[in-house]
Amino acid sequence: MFFQSLSSPIMGSRAAVFAIVFAIGCISYFSLKREPAWEDMGLAGLSIGIIWAIGHFFSFFTVQKATAVLLVGYCGFANAFFHTHWQNPVTALPWYGTLMEGRIIKIDSRTSVDSRARVKDEAIKHYVTLSNVKYLSGVEQDTNPLMRDVRVRLRYNDPKHYQVGQKIELRAMLRSISSPSFSHDYDQQFRAWFENINGAGYALSVGKVVEDGEGNNFRLKFYTILGQVQQRIQQTRQNIANVIMSQTGCQDCKAIEAILLAGETGLLAESVRQEFAASGLSHLLAVAGLHLASVMGVCVFVLRKGLACWPYAALHWPIKKIALITGFLLGGGYAVLTGLHVPVLRSYFMLAWIILALLVERPVLSLLRFGWAIGLLLIVWPELVRDVSFQMSFTAVLGLICGYQIIHHYEQNRYQHTPLWKRSWLAAEGRNLFFASFFAGMATLPVIAAHFGTFQPYFIIANLIAVPITSLWVLPWGILSLFLMVFGKASWALAMMGIGIKAIILLAHMVARLPGSVFHIPLMPEAVLWCAIGGVTLCCLGTRRLRLVGGIVLAGVIGVMAFQLPPNLLVSPDGRLVGLIDHKGLFIILGHDPYIEKRWMTGFALNSVQHFSSEEGGDTATRNQAFFPVGNAVGDKGQPWPEYLHCQSGGICRIFLDHFGMQGREILLYYEKKKREDPRPPALLNMEKANMKKACQKAALVLTLVAYREPCSAFVGQEINTISIRKSGALNIWFKSASLRLISDQQVRGMRPWVREPGQRGLPNLPLAASE
User: Where in this chain does the record put each ComEC/Rec2-related protein domain (predicted)?
Assistant: First the structure.
């Protein structure tokens, strides 16, 4: 039955099936907890080949089809395996500021409104990516150049007159890529592994150019030409942004115009970004497939209609193909102006297949072209299968194909019985955009909820209005304004573009103010995400029975999202930050790290964070108690802490689990405090030791965040210290009614080539010892 469904009319093309199976093979490899051995890889491939040969020899068609599917999945698994092991190893970085030199391969900047900026230019952060980095000071000065690249943030007073291909010298502080802040968090190390990034840091001195990149070497010439082109493009983008911001009118409208026409993302106010995110319109602020398709569509339409008005061209030239090729090239120019980001490149590649289908007069929404595009992308970049933009593009295209197959016959019959005067191009395009927004929005809904932890109930309604305005009004006027900027007459076109943007901003403001506009959902494990994508795939491409299975899978995913509870206790990867999650919000027991705290609040849909208002954990009266209840104290924002959390000034906290159904059990937390003379009397200290002995007997878990201290020598339960936390990574703890549930980052990610323990530096890069 399954193989009959693969050849059904709805599935359409074997290319799409094989591409999906190939992607499943890539997912299977990246989801493993341990790295497979080369011998196991060869044995598995040989076994599948033998089974396929037996089925082919004895004409067992079912076995032959099954092994063919397994073989495609094995190819995806092996492709991801070889791409992973093809990467360079991560090298240890120095712990101190080091003088180094490297060749610039990328220059980018990020504009942000930073209230901590001491000067105006400090809010604009400039970054350079350096390759062949060689240390010029310290014990590493005689080592070989790094095999991977490093990304350095330049100082605000650096002249920044650099070009790609130049070799610069500067002193910088480098750090390895950090581990996830909690289990199931975004894995930055995975992305850095495939982007050939060794680490990142910030400059301690102004850079100095030591080589201009000129010479007879082909690579140097290539870098020099690339740097000149990149500098010219960057200057053009800056000029476009300056022209836009010099106009009169709405400041937020001009900032969005700069995003859509020049890729300048740091000029928009944070409040407007939050309103766009709450209304489900944040994708309009990131140039991707929607913007490229709209720009190409407008260019093709205008060129084709313009050439059709010329009788000679209409009779003798292939105006359709000329318009398609010209629109494709103009779309490439628009992609260059907006920054050539990875989603833009991937969308441009997908649109190239659509243009090719139109040139050879083939169906555009074809599963054959969809399968080939997905397959080629994963063959070249198998790591894209874990990228959120790729997953959203995949599900959106599936939704469009499935949706247009459903309404195809209805539209044909309706068009045949519609009078000519009602067959308006504008109405047809508006109707197509309406259906495209609906189908793509419904298909990407599970992916958005699983990745970003938010669900916007009104996002479909908002997109049904905002997407047509963007495609039919905002971007056409934007293209015209880019053309008129050459002649200095773009003011009126930008003003017309601003009218549409102002309407979208008003729509986002209204939708964000509606009751229940955003529901926050704790981030899901990766397995739930794969189930959601699998359910969408079955609903879009399967037969009736497979669609029923897909619907059941999606219902299960929705149930998991609705009833999953966040952990009660969080420990950072380095063990220096401990947080307690309560119905009132996040309470930081130990440490302070703004980045990790923000990740915790975002990942578990928390609205507030509280810290101890006193460094010693309470006022003077409560310090002389053996264990004072923190619930009697207040945090830095004036809210009382949970009553089941009791702490003392010596660096010990007790979390009583009676509130969670574990009668008589508790968690002991030892953390380091500043050394000071204890003002408490000896009798109280002796009573504290007796209480600690009883607490150790009742403890279900002991967290020791001080390496030199042994709190419970006779404790026979579970104990976690600083060393084990640094080996296992971030720790999530749930307080269940029967027992504690602990999940570490190592349990989620396993021991893979891109995974490094917190504090693990990588392969040593020290010079060889001197020979006698």
Answer: 260-541
Per DSSP, 649 falls in state T
Whether residue 720 is found in the same domain as residue 596: yes
CB 477 within 8 A of CB 442: no
pLDDT grade for 421, boundaries at 50, 70 and 90: very low
Selection from 752, 721, 731 nearest residue 180 by Cα: 731
The answer to the question of residue 770 being in a domain is no
Residues 154 and 215 in one domain: yes
CA distance 396 to 535: 13
Q: How far is CA 231 from CA 69, 149, 192, 339, 483, in A?
A: 48, 21, 25, 12, 21
Angle at 51 between CA 531 and CA 57, to 5 degrees: 130
Radius of gyration of the chain (CA): 30
Contact 202, 153 (CB under 8 A): yes
pLDDT in tens, 575-594: 888 888 887 788 888 888 88
My answer on whether 554 and 497 are in the same domain is no
Is residue 177 a part of any domain in this protein? yes
Number of domains comprising the chain: 6
Query: Which residue in this structure is represented by tokens 């569509």?
Result: 297
Q: What single-letter amino acid sits at 306?
A: G
654 touches 668 (CB < 8 A)? yes
In a domain, 38, yes or no: yes
Among 386, 415, 438, the domain-final residue is: 386
Q: Does some domain include residue 425? A: no
Percent of the chain with pLDDT over 90: 12
Which of 238, 270, 305 finishes a domain? 238
How many CB atoms lie under 10 A from the CB of residue 97?
17
The span from the CA of 133 to the CA of 138, in Å, is 14
Q: Is residue 256 scored above 70 in pLDDT?
A: yes
**Spatial CA neighbour of 757 closest among 201, 198, 192, 189:** 189
Q: Please, which residues bridge with residue 519 across strands? A: 455
Same-domain status, 229 and 248: no
Q: Which two tokens stand for residue 96?
A: 């101190």
Give the CA-trace dihedral at 184, 188, 191, 192, to 10 degrees.
-150
Residues 96-105 pLDDT 10s: 888 999 988 8
Q: Do 614 and 685 fall within a single domain?
A: yes
Range of the domain at 43: 2-86
3-state secondary structure of 234: helix
CA distance 460 to 440: 9
Residue 597 and residue 699 in one domain: yes
Local structure of residue 756 (DSSP, 8 states): -
Least confident of 411-425, 528-542, 600-614: 411-425
Residues 597 and 611 in one domain: yes
Residue 136: which CATH number?
2.40.50
Residue 647 near residue 618 (C-beta atoms within 8 A): yes
Confidence (pTM): 0.81
pLDDT grade for 329, boundaries at 50, 70 and 90 = very high
Whether 303 and 326 map to the same domain: the answer is yes
